[in-house]
C-alpha cells in the first residue's frame, strides 16, 4: 500500500494499517483497463532505451531483463524488493533473486514472533495447515502458499528469517500463548492461556465476518494490559519483552483506529529500531554486513523520502547502514499491471479472498504500465538513467508520485497479468 485508500484499506486503519497493506497499493476491485500507448516524449524515449523483457517459465527466469537484474544483484550487498502484496508471482521472483544473491539474512514485513514460527515451520516437512487452522493468518503474508514456499526455499538455502514489524494484526493470541509457555507461575500460565483462547476466537470471528476493525488488537482494553503488566512483573525477561512488544503494537493499532495522527510514523520508527536490534549479531568491527534480502510493501523500501509521504522508511535506513559499511543496495519495485490478487482474509471460505484489479492508470507508474504490452513477458525498466536525467539534465517529470518512484528505486518490474496468492 502506498497512497490511495480503498474501502478495505479504511478498515485497515482500524488494524494499524496492516490490512491496508494487505489490500494492496491500489483502489479496490476496478474493471481491468488497457492504458493508452505512451506519447513520444523525452521521458518515454529514455525509458524505452532502458526497457527489457523478462521471460518466466515455471521457476526459471530468463531474457535480457533478467540478465541485467542478475548483473546488478551480484554487485549489491543488499537487495530490497518492494511489492504489492498478494500476488502469486512475486514470491517466486524473490526466490530467484535469492538464488543469485545468496542472502545470509531475509528481512520480512512480519513481527519477530511470526518470524520464529515461520522459521520453525519452514524447516519441517509438509505444510503448516494445522498451525494455521488453529492460528488463522498468524503468519501474515506467509499464511499463503507461495509466500510460505519462499520462506521454505530461503531456509533450505541457509538464510535466517528476521521479522521487524509490529505484532501482526492476527497474532496477539499467539503472542499470549508464547508468554504462557514461558511463564513461571501457574496463575500466570492459566490466565494467559485463557486470554489467548478468547483472543484467537475473537480474531477468527472478525476474519470470517470481514469486520476487521473488531480484531482483538484493536479492542484490547487498557485494563487488560494493566492486569497483564501486574501479572508478569516478576516473570522472566522474555515474557516481559513480549508484553512490551504487544503493548507497543496495540498503541499503534488503536491510534490508527481512532484516526489520530502519529500511528504510522510510530510503526515505521518501531520497524527501524527492530531492524537495528536484529542486525546486532552481524555487526563485527571492520567487517561488512552479510548479504541481505528485504521484501516489504513498496512504500517501505525506497531510498530517501517515502513514496507515500514525508517519512523516511526502512529502505532509507538500509541505505544508510550499507553506506556506513561501504556497501551497495539495490531497490526493485515489482508489481502487476492487472489480474487478481488477495483482497480478503477469510480462513474458512478462501473463494472470498481473491479479487480483480487494474493498476494500469496509476500516476506513479503510468509510463511503465503503458509500455507493458499484454502477453507473457514481464517488463524490466532500469530507472537510474531517468533519475539522473531528472536530477542533472532537467528531464521533465511533472508527477510527484512518479518522481518519488524514480528517486526511491533502481528498477521497476511490471508483470502483465497476475494471479492471487493461494491459501493452503
Q: How would you describe what is shown here?
A:
The chain has 18 helices and 11 strands. By secondary structure, it is α/β, with parallel strands linked by helices. It folds into 2 domains: 7-165 and 263-415, Rossmann fold (3-Layer(aba) Sandwich), CATH 3.40.50; 172-257. The strands form 2 sheets. Strands 2-1-10-11-7-3-6-4-5 form a 9-stranded mixed β-sheet, with helices on both faces. β1 and β2 form a beta hairpin. The radius of gyration is 21 Å and the shape is globular.
How would you concisely characterize the structure shown here?
This protein has 424 residues and is α/β, with parallel strands linked by helices. The chain is built from 18 helices and eleven strands.
By DSSP, the count of extended strands is 11
Helical element count?
18
Give the mean pLDDT.
91
Strand order of the largest sheet: 2-1-10-11-7-3-6-4-5
CATH topology of the largest domain: Rossmann fold
Radius of gyration: 21 Å
Tell me the strand percentage band: 5-15%
- Poorly predicted ranges: 1-35
Sheet with the most strands, sense and barrel status: 9 strands, mixed
- Identify the CATH architecture of the largest domain: 3-Layer(aba) Sandwich
Q: Tell me, what is the CATH class of the largest domain?
A: Alpha Beta
Fraction in helix: 40-55%
Number of domains: 2
N- and C-termini, Cα separation = 24 Å
Q: Label the structural class.
A: alpha/beta
Amino acid at each position: 500500500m502506498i497512497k490511495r485508500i480503498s474501502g478495505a484499506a479504511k478498515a485497515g486503519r482500524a488494524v494499524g494499517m496492516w490490512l491496508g497493506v494487505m489490500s494492496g497499493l491500489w483502489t479496490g476491485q476496478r474493471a481491468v483497463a488497457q492504458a493508452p500507448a505512451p506519447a513520444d516524449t523525452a521521458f518515454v524515449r529514455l525509458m524505452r532505451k532502458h526497457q527489457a523483457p523478462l521471460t518466466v517459465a515455471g521457476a526459471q527466469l530468463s531474457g535480457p531483463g533478467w540478465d541485467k537484474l542478475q548483473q546488478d544483484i551480484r554487485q549489491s550487498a543488499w537487495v530490497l524488493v518492494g511489492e504489492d502484496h498478494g500476488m502469486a508471482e512475486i514470491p517466486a521472483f524473490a526466490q530467484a533473486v535469492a538464488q543469485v544473491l545468496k542472502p545470509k539474512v531475509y528481512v520480512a514485513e512480519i513481527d519477530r514472533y511470526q518470524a520464529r514460527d515461520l522459521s520453525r515451520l519452514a524447516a519441517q516437512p509438509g505444510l503448516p495447515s494445522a498451525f494455521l487452522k488453529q492460528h488463522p493468518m498468524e503468519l501474515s503474508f506467509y499464511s499463503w502458499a507461495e509466500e510460505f514456499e519462499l520462506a521454505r526455499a530461503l531456509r533450505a538455502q541457509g538464510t535466517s528469517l528476521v521479522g521487524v514489524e509490529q505484532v501482526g494484526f492476527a497474532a496477539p493470541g499467539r503472542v499470549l500463548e508464547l508468554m504462557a509457555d514461558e511463564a513461571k507461575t501457574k496463575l500466570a500460565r492459566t490466565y494467559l492461556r485463557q486470554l489467548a483462547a478468547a483472543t484467537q476466537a475473537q480474531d477468527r470471528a472478525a476474519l470470517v465476518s470481514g469486520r476487521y476493525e473488531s480484531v482483538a488488537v484493536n479492542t484490547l482494553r487498557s485494563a487488560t494490559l494493566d492486569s497483564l503488566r501486574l501479572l508478569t512483573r516478576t516473570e522472566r525477561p522474555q515474557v516481559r519483552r513480549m508484553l512490551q512488544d504487544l503493548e507497543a503494537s496495540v498503541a499503534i493499532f488503536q491510534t490508527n483506529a481512532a484516526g489520530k495522527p502519529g500511528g504510522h510514523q510510530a510503526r515505521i520508527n518501531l520497524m527501524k529500531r527492530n531492524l537495528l536490534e536484529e542486525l546486532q549479531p552481524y555487526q563485527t568491527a571492520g567487517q561488512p554486513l552479510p548479504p541481505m534480502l528485504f521484501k516489504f510493501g513498496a512504500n517501505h523500501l525506497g531510498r530517501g523520502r517515502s513514496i507515500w509521504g514525508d517519512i523516511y522508511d526502512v529502505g532509507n535506513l538500509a541505505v544508510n547502514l550499507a553506506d556506513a559499511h561501504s556497501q551497495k543496495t539495490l531497490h526493485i519495485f515489482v508489481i502487476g499491471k492487472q489480474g487478481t490478487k488477495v483482497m480478503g482474509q477469510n480462513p474458512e471460505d478462501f473463494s472470498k479472498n481473491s479479487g480483480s484489479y487494474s493498476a494500469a492508470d496509476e500516476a506513479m507508474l503510468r509510463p511503465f504500465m503503458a509500455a507493458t504490452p499484454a502477453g507473457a513477458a514481464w517488463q524490466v525498466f532500469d530507472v537510474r538513467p531517468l533519475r539522473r536525467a531528472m536530477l542533472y539534465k532537467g528531464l521533465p517529470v511533472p508527477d510527484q508520485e512518479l518522481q518519488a518512484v524514480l528517486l526511491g528505486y533502481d528498477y521497476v518490474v511490471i508483470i502483465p497479468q497476475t494471479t492471487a496468492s493461494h491459501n493452503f
